[in-house]
Specification:
Keywords: Acyltransferase, Cytoplasm, Ligase, Transferase. This protein is of the alpha/beta class. It is built from 3 helices and 10 strands. The protein has a single domain, classed as BirA Bifunctional Protein, domain 2.
């Protein structure tokens, strides 16, 4: 697979947020997308944040991949418009929500997913880790364990949702689901390879790699 690094320089507004409830972030994304559908000339956006514990299911997700009664969950459970199956977000997992107008890049969802994977593979390489892809699945893997999940929604070529990189989370929440509907592969986190790693330091690396891969000028807000 040949990955591409873009050379054009669009502005992209970078929002580094702390812990944010999932529904607040979801509402924010939808608002940003609506504004850009109305006015496609607005700058692109990259939001980096963490969520309190929450389970989310993609639009066509199979509820059988939840191992608990949804009505009795100790954490919030939300079905949203992204692609993909069920996943888990929690502190220590760095979530990225790019709001990009793909008409500026390439109107190709397969290409966009591969570029998001490439961003995270480059981040892992900064730490001397060799991230990989598995052809049948979307996401990034380390030694056969999934460390990053990706799920997107695109409306009139404006993107929302994005990626989640397990930096140093408590992984026990994943035991209550079949993550991304994959039954025979486990979930991992960077802390297993790099003890003491924090989301704060990884934020910088993700922002830099994102800017390189998409060829944007990040403007911190």
């Amino acid at each position: 697979m040949t990955y591409s690094i873009e050379i054009h320089k669009y502005r992209c507004l970078l929002y580094n947020q702390e812990l944010m409830p999932y529904l607040d972030a979801h509402h924010w994304q939808r608002s940003l997308v609506a504004e850009r559908i109305k006015n496609p000339s607005l700058d692109d956006v990259l939001i980096l944040l963490e969520h309190p514990p929450v389970y989310t299911l993609g639009q066509g997700a199979n509820p059988e991949f939840l191992k608990f009664d949804r009505e009795k969950s100790q954490y919030e459970v939300h079905k949203v418009e992204r692609g993909g199956e069920v996943t888990y977000h929690c502190p220590g997992q760095l979530v990225g929500y790019p709001i990009l107008n793909l008409q500026r890049y390439r109107q190709d969802l397969h290409w966009y997913l591969r570029q998001l994977e490439f961003v995270l593979i480059r981040v892992l390489a900064k730490y001397g880790l060799q991230g990989s892809r598995i052809p049948a699945f979307t996401g990034v893997w380390l030694e056969g364990r999934k460390v990053a999940a990706i799920g997107i929604k695109v409306s009139r070529w404006i993107t929302m949702h994005g990626f989640a990189l397990n930096v140093c989370p408590d992984l026990t929440g994943f035991e209550q689901i079949v993550p991304c509907g994959i039954t025979d592969k486990s979930v991992g986190s960077l802390a297993e390879w790099i003890p003491g790693i924090t989301c704060q330091e990884v934020r910088f690396e993700i922002a830099q790699c994102f800017a390189e891969v998409f060829g944007v000028e990040l403007v911190e807000c």
